[in-house]
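haha ok so turns out i had the wrong file open the whole time. this is the CORRECT one, sorry everyone. sequence first:
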Amino acid sequence: MENSEIILLNINGEDKQGLTAALTEILAKHGAFILDIGQSDIHRNLSLGILFKSMHNNSGDILKDLLFKAYEMDVNIRFTPITVERYSNWVNMQGKNRYIITLLGRILTAKQIAAVSRIIAEQNLNIDNIIRLTGRIPLNEEERAAKSCVELSVRGTPNDRQQMQQSFMELSSSLNFDISFQEESMYRRMRRLICFDMDSTLIQTEVIDELAERAGVGEQVRAITESAMHGEIDFEESFRQRVKLLKGLDVSVMREIAMNLPITEGLDRLMKVLQKVGFKTAILSGGFTYFGNYLKDKYGFDYMYANELEIENGKLTGNYVGDVVDGKRKAELLRLIAQVERIDLRQAVAVGDGANDLPMLGIAGLGIAFHAKPKVKQNAEQSLSTVGIDGILYFLGYKDSMLDSKILNG
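then structure:
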């Protein structure tokens, strides 16, 4: 032991104020060089690891002082000598790919975490770190938070990344939770633009269906909408057919619908946080400008693009003005906004539920299928289905402790 120059310390026990300071002061006194350090605290039980190199062939004196201090502070300490070869192999591992895997649901169980961990192991990846992003869980079920989220940092190269992604998606459906698999990079940590679909994303309805009900053609329009959202018919053609059926509807109906839009759970919290941290936000909708502008004014979106209905003498004509905002146009608009704001596309997030959202989900650095149709889930890399839209914050890496009322209202 005394001849080993590289030593790993593992300290476990009840967390005490000043413990880390006391141990590192001993290392400093003896001129030791810290190669790595990590600490976690679960239910006030500390787990501290320090990898150090003795610089003056005095490891015996260092270990003796550490043992005395550990005894004095009533914690357990273990020493492991590390060979130069083992240390070099560990250093070389740092160059490997790193990924962030986020597990999110109304509740997370051991079964879900075990299943994800098994896939990670089978793909030859190693878990470096696990942190909880949501608040601490009370024993009283009535006090339990609406969501539970943990984030895993893993390292290595997957044997089959596409198969891994597919396995995660299948698992999330069968065990009723959401999972995000992202490559760790500076872009993941510096997202700056987020673009949303509107209908069935920001609001829990398809506005054109609401208008159709008032016009007495609800069943016909719903059938066309459903077919378009599943990608069975061309969006522009379906849009033209549906708008035509609205001919003669009074514009006062739009005002009534706008005032009673069913807002998606978590939107208020999400927008407050995004604005607080400096995100640019946009609505890119295949719906209508009237309702997009209502949401833009209410929540403070920076951009809004949608389709404009033609109105004459206070009634809808059954036509629209300008080009249709379809899937291709949404992707173009995302690119345009990013260019105007000088934001790299890898820093952009896109969120939507329908087949016409896939082009923008595909070009954004983070594309999220939100409560999406099966075809969209299959083609999107990230899916969010079990919680409200503020679940996006966890995919972005935010912790509940960052999002308390003081931060939101300060």
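The two ends are 53 Å apart (CA to CA).
again sry for the mixup
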